Amino acid sequence: MTDSQTDRSPRVPPSEHPSWVIENCAIATMDDDVEYTSGHLVVGGNRLLAVGPGPAPERYRSAAARVLDATGQLATPGLVNTHHHFYQWLTRGLAQDSHLFDWLVELYPTWARIDAPMLGAAARASLAMMARGGVTTAFDHHYVFPAGAGDLLGAEIEAARELGVRLTAARGSMDLGASDGGLPPDFAVESTEAALRATEEAVAAHHDPAPDAMLRIAVAPCSPFSVTTELMRESAALARRLGVRLHTHGSETAEESAFCRERFGMGPTEYFEETGWLGEDVWMAHCVHMTDADIAAFARTGTGVAHCPSSNARLAAGIARVPELLAAGVPVGLGVDGTASNEAGELRTELRNALLVQRLGPSRERALSARQALRLGTLGGAEVLGRREELGSLEAGKLADVVLWRLDGLGHSTIEDPVAALVLGPPAPVALSLVNGVPVVEDDTLLTADEAAVAAEARAQARRLAARAAG
Ligand SMILES: [Zn+2]
C-alpha cells in the first residue's frame, strides 16, 4: 500500500464516506511486513478505505466525521484470539499445581453445574478483559452442556453482541464419559445424537457466512479423550455439509498421546487423519507434542494451530514447536485458552509470552521475533479462523478492526521500535479499538460495558456455581 495507490481515486465516493481519519501514528500493517514510522488510516463504515505513510489525503480529512491525531501511538490490526473457554472465568485459580488430566478431573464436576446466566456473566467478563486489551475478534469453545442448563450458546452470543466484539462461537461437545473409558464424569457428557443435533441447530440459528460477519459458528467436539470416534467422524461430516469450520484440542500433553496410543493404537495426529480431521477447514488448539511427520501432515493438509503459550506453561504441557510449524508453512494463531488455565485472560500479553516461551525451547534466540509474535496474534489468527481475506492486516478494503496502542508513557519510554515496545514491553494501554468500524475501547476504557458491573456479576455467578458444586 502506498500513497500513490490511495490517491488514485479522484474523489471520495458517497458510499465510502470516511468516518475516521487517524494520523501521525506508527503503523504495523501486517501486510507483507509493510510498516510506516508515521502514517494514516482512513475508515469508512466498517471498512478501511486507505492506509499509507504521512498525513491522510486532504479529501479524506475534509470529509471525515472524526480526525484523530494519534501521535505516540502504534496502529495494528485488532488482535484475533483463536482458542478460549469463556465459562472458565468462574473457576479461576483452582487446581493450581496440576497437569492437564488431574486439573480436568478436579474441575469437571463443577463445570457440569453451569447454566445460562453463569455462562452469560463469564462470557461478558472474558470478552471485556480481552477487548480492553486489544482483541477485536474472539473465539469461544464451549463443550459442557448439562441437561436443563438453558440456552448456553445464546447467552455467550448475546454477551459478544453487547460488548461489540466479533465472535466465532464453537458448539462443542463431549460424549465419552468415564464409564466408557473417557476422562469426564458421565453426568458431564451428552449422547452422540443429542450433540450432533444441537450442533446442527446452532449453525442454522446463528452462523453468518457474510464476509463482514460479526458472528460465525464452528463445530468443535472437545478432545480425543472426551469424545467418541463416531462423534469425531460425524462432526467432521456435519461441518463439511454445512460449510463451517472445525476445531478441537490436539496433541496437548504427553498423557494425551499415551491415551491415543493405548485406545486407538496410534498417535493423535494419525487419529485425526483417520477420522477426517486434517484439512484447510480445521484448526487445533495446542499441538505441543508433534513429531516431524505430524508437522508435515498439518502442512500438507493446511490444518491450522492455536498456540496457547501461557496455558501450556500453567499446565506443564510443554513447548509447542512453533518455529518448525511456521517453517513448514502451517497456519498458526495465538490463543488465551480458558482462564482456569490462564488466569490473566489477555491476548496482548500472549504476544510477549509466546516469544519468551519459544526462546526457552531448542531454537533459542531464533525461535520467534517480535514481528512474528505480532503476526501470530493478528494475521495468523485471521488465517486459522478462515478470515484472512477480510481480517488480520491493515489494508484498504479489509474490515475496520483496528487498535491504536499508546506507547508514549513510562512503560514504553526509550524503546524506539514500536513493535518491540508493544511485544516486549509491559501491556500497552489501548487508545482506541475499532471493531467493524465502531469504537469499543477509547482512552483505555471499555465503552460497551461497565467493568465494575461485569466483575460484580461474574463474582456473584462464580459463587452460585461454587455453591451448586458443593451442594
Ligand atoms: Zn482449551
From TrEMBL:
Pfam families according to UniProt: Amidohydro_1
Organism: Streptomyces zhaozhouensis
Gene3D superfamilies found in the cross-reference section: Metal-dependent hydrolases, Urease, subunit C, domain 1
Protein name: Cytosine/adenosine deaminase
InterPro entries according to UniProt: Amidohydro-rel, Metal-dep_hydrolase_composite, Metal_Hydrolase, MTA/SAH_deaminase
UniProt keywords, alphabetically: Hydrolase, Metal-binding, Zinc
Stored PANTHER family: AMIDOHYDROLASE-RELATED DOMAIN-CONTAINING PROTEIN, AMINOHYDROLASE SSNA-RELATED
Annotated GO MF terms: deaminase activity; hydrolase activity, acting on carbon-nitrogen (but not peptide) bonds, in cyclic amidines; metal ion binding
Domain Amidohydrolase-related: residue ranges: 75-414
